[in-house]
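Schema walk-through. Below, the input block comes first and the output block second. Nothing else is stored per chain. Lengths vary across the set, and this one has 598 residues.
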Amino acid sequence: MKLHKFFSELERRKVYKAAIAYGISAWVIAQIAGLVSASFEFPSWVMKLIIIILIVGFLTTMVLSWIFDFGPKGIERTEWESSDLSDEKKPITGKLVISFLILISVLIGAGWWTWQGLVINNVKPIKSLAILPFDNFTGNDKLEYFVAGMHSSLIGDMQKISALRVPGTTSSNSFKDVKMSIPEIASALKVDALIEASVSCIEGDSVCIQIRLVRVYPEEQQLWVQDYYEDKSKILNLYNRVTKQISEEVNVILTPQEENLLAESKTVDPEAYDAYLMGQFYWEKLDKESAEKALEYFQLAIEIDPEWADPYAGLANAWGVFSFFGFLPKSVTLPKVYKYMNKALELDTNSARAHYVKAIVAVWTEWDWEKGEKEFLRSLELNPNNALSRMYYAHLLMILRRSDEAVQQANLGLELDPLKPLGLGLYGVVMKFEGDYQSAILHFEKALSIDPNFDFAKGNLADTQMRVAYKNGDYKKWFESWDKKVGSRGRWNDEGRTAVLNIFHEKGHIAAIEEMFKMNEKYGDSCYMSNGIKAERYLKLEKYDKAMECLERDYEMQNNAYIATKPYYDQLKDNPRYIELLRKMNLPLGDKHQKINK
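--- output ---
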């Protein structure tokens, strides 16, 4: 058979059409498989297997389309067009078919191995990296604070890059001195690459440091290494340079704003930075004693370096803790909050930390939801990898009953710093108010496994366990949890707790809750109940007017920004007094989350 007759036969047997149809279908399948594989981080062999199946399927389709066709009786064997073809010529046609299929197989195979070499093995983009704790090779343990400060500062600069996910300092520090390989650490933090650094000398006013970038997929590979010898007073500028160099190495394109931020020249006293880090460490504990220590360290940082913005933002944040948790009256705390917050913004309008504090003040002090959201978004624009900013923004969205957005931001925050106790606690609160008690308990317990003395997680864990017990009708467990909670925190005296528990065993849970109010009236602060707690207890008693009186007192004192969340909304959404209170607070009315104009 002549070659042109062979190709005519291919066309008559619709082999071309079958090849085109299969090629389009295979391309679509490969694209979808590639997206799914990348999104769920499937092993590379999954994609290889899919491609091999598609290649085998192509060859099978070609053979079947040559042999068979759809006829009047269904699938039929394709007959030869001319009856004058002798039997001795037909084998030649078979050879041509086989040669044709082999050629196609070779071409497809070559394309596959080229694609595999370029895409799978070499050019998977680096979209996330973690900065491991710096090694102190100076031989002087007293310089550990300075090495830790350098580590935290580089993380802060790297987190300004929106195209990279960079876990925070707490999560990174959890891998200090652990016996894990680079790939194991990267897998635990779910990152594509790691940065290692070692400080070899701190002599006089100079620092010697080596930084290297290591890819972990498909195997451990050093991509970049650089040695630096830097003046201490200009150490913050070093982080800017390193950040830009690493972004170039991983092919990340910086936005114009990121370019400008990293081009800023900064100097800061190393001792001031150390004091600032200690202040931030204590602030995150959210208890009175720790907040007092945070104030001392932030103030020390300002005394050492009065032109640095971040310690002022830290002071504003610390005074906000005293206000938010009622440790001091707002008449004392608020003037200081505004004073230090405004000073921080005066010194640095691009301080992500200052805008973050301004957002927190707007939400939990001013109840200005619109301003709070604007400042959170500005802070995240300046530092998109700030886990706590995303967590507190999630709380604002929860207050506004924008549940889906709240969970999304909380998940982003948790992904950015999965081992920070405060972040875990804040995430648990979002889950608690969303009704996912199992997830809430899991994250509170994880926070306490990292910091067993973290009171914020302790209190919320007990509260969540109580909610689960009450929801399940396990009132005995509810009262046992209540007794443990108020007893461990010193909020109730022995007489009050004993009276409540005795009434529960004698008359049941409703009578015992009523006894709580009697003991509170009798002993006052020795059997303490906040207005929010009283409101929740009255709701259990179905005394809605009493519950509203408590919420209205909180409104007058500007406490409890969370009154639009569960369980209040679910039980009071049709109550006229509750609706009016939501209106006064400019919170959404109804289930459609409509926006309220001031």
